[in-house]
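Aim 2 progress update. The chain analyzed this quarter is reproduced below.
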Amino acid sequence: EHTISLQAIDKLGRKSQRIFYDILIRSYYISPEDTYIATLNDIANYNITLGLTYDTATEKAMKNNRLGLNNLVHDKEAEGYKKLVLPQGGVYRIMMTDRDSFIEDNPYLDMPSNFTLDLNDSIIKLHPLLDKDGDTVNITARFNHCFDSHIINGTLEGDWDERQNFSSEFMEFEGEGTQNVSFHGNSKYCTLRNVTIKHVTGYNVFSG
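Predicted structure tokens:
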């Protein structure tokens, strides 16, 4: 970990404000021994249902998907792995959650430090919220006080395309009032790489 600074000096010798950056120099290579390749059996064991559609999704199944993904990530990190690779090409449909990040049955996907989640061409898809009551948000993943954490190789999709089916009143309310991915606290060296974020009516990514 290093700190660099940048400062501009004009031809008269006047100096700009100095800007400091922290940088981390390391290889992104993670060994096979440090990588867990999730199977469809793992997905089933964590009560995750792949391939839910707008018509087939239930609140219970979508909550289970949020909870299962979060538990799978944190369990593998606790077991000493540094990377989790999901089964290729899955669609994980989740519902909106509450602004309270400690909602136990419908949590954010909270990334642990020193960990990489490889979506492996999968999609995490947000389901439209049908009830305007409550203080709901669209957060899919959160980096909170994380160090060197990453989500790679997939798609995080909001509900804009399916919300088109509803009235203008529904289209205007705050169903996605905040952000799809948030970077909070003292998070450092965290990235989204080869990740598409689309159909989000709030902010795609928030940092603060």
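The chain has a mean pLDDT of 84. The chain has four helices and 14 strands. These observations will guide the mutagenesis experiments scheduled for the next reporting period.
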